[in-house]
Task: structure prediction
Amino acid sequence: MLLRKRAWDMMREEFTTIDESASLAEAIRALRDSMKEAPDNNVVVVKKKNGSLRGVASIWTMLKAVEDQVLKDEDLSLTEETDWDRAFKRAGTACCSTSLDEHIEEDVAILKPTDPMLVVLEIFRKKHRSWALVQEGGKIIGVVLLSDVYRELTRDLVTQF
Result:
């Protein structure tokens, strides 16, 4: 199983992409929209203007961006007089109008379509990622999520229990 199954057996050919010039709000919206079809999706592939890979905006980088922006807001002090709704709305507006540029993960886990599941698991572990991109001929052709590997790996195990 670990050597028989390949990255192409588990990869999702349908994945969300966004241009590197997008705002953080556009990336958040793109990820939320993709999660309607695939609730376990947690990445958006970011492409350069020429269509090549720039990196990934993951759910973690987006949450960190929101957290950084919200925590910077001086009106969000822990006092009873704080209008939390107003302060959060202002912080959210500021956060979403920022560029996606500083929130792109460029240290991307890359797989070949023929990489066996054992290699996929090793890359997830080494890179500390729950996703990896599948690349062939310099082009991203799919995304593998940890949940995809888990489903594939446990499919045969469940019948043995």
Summary: The beta strands are 17-19, 43-47, 53-58, 110-111, 131-136, 139-145.
